[in-house]
Fold this protein.
Amino acid sequence: MQTRTQAEQDRIVEQKIKKVMELYSDAPELGRAALDRGLAALTQELAAATGKESAGRIGARQGKVSELTSILPFVKGGAKRLRGLLEALEGNFQGADRVGTLHDMRFVFLDNDTKLLFATAYDGEWDAYIDDFVTKIPNSLDLLFCNIEGWPGIHSPAVKDWLVKHQVQAEAWYVANPNVTVAETRRLARLGQAVAEFLDKVE
Amino acid sequence: MDPTMGTPTGVKAGPEPTGSKQGVDAQVKLEELRRLFADAPELGKKALANVLRELTSQVADMPPPIESAGRVGARLGKRSELTIVVPLASGGAKRLRAFLRLLGGNLSPGATKVGTLHDMRFVFLDNDTRMLFATSFDGDWDTYIDDFIALIPDYLDIIDSAWDGWPGIRSPGAKDYLVKHQITAEGWFVAHPDLTVADIQRLKRIGQALDKFLDEIGE
């Protein structure tokens, strides 16, 4: 990306502010009031905006951390089976740890149990992440997604296209510590513990 | 219509079962699973057979179970989830999408002020008629929402004024509105459930300090 001069940058921010003001001219009163009050902060934010990046084939990424958001239609009886499975596990996904790049993952039942929201935060590229799932926990994925309409099976060559088709890209994506991967967090946690033990001994 | 449909029971707000009770329950749960998957598609049945041994140890050897994040939402260790699906007001999608795009989809300057927020996404659904707002945060629901209200009220009103019926962040009805549209996750996994945002920042500093120290003594 080319470096902009300060004057260019200021002009871009000014244009953006103008655009936001126009957009919110027909917003509800409290939205307009909030914009008025937040204008100074917003100017700063617009100047600093580096932009979210792409996770590859689909999805947003900030730093090293990406998002996957899918809305999946249940087959008949699928919601009941999946709920039973999740209840039995009490939300414990030992398998997910094995993927190694998964920060968090949620399963949410939507619209009277007709759809599943499957949303994760993970490290790096979409293709590498899906490959990890496929090689490390193929059975768990079949177990979860056999309850979804049209699931081709984890070993099908069509599985990635199917996943892309159901994924919805986030319009905005925020990560508090965007440069810390799951593995890096583990390393830092061990390091912190070692330092604490060391300090205990010196005392 | 199946009688269990639409009654999410995966996350219990009450006292959690004890370890021994979980052990006793394990066998019953596996039986339930076998029964549930008896009419699953063939590849689902096969997958169940394949993972059954692993599942046996998983169900019996319980780590901390999912708890409640307070008024609504699931929590694992110190980490909670918030998942809101909300109808958009007329014209709201257009405004909000343009606003988010102008920010480049990057909400860091505002969001960083809420020191308990791990990650946050805004996703437009169903032809821009609904929005998914999903976050992962530290601790209790009420405290977290209070933080949003105290630290970035105007951001919230700019964004949420696109939501149908949003009463305004300063309205006493704001929390009830959020609760009404929040859906508790029935499965929730976190890789490092015991590390808060602040913990990770502290560890990053320790790591940097140690690297610097090692560089210096190496010179």
Remarks:
- Chain B is about 45% helix and 15% strand.
- Chain B touches chain A through 101 residues (CB under 8 Å).
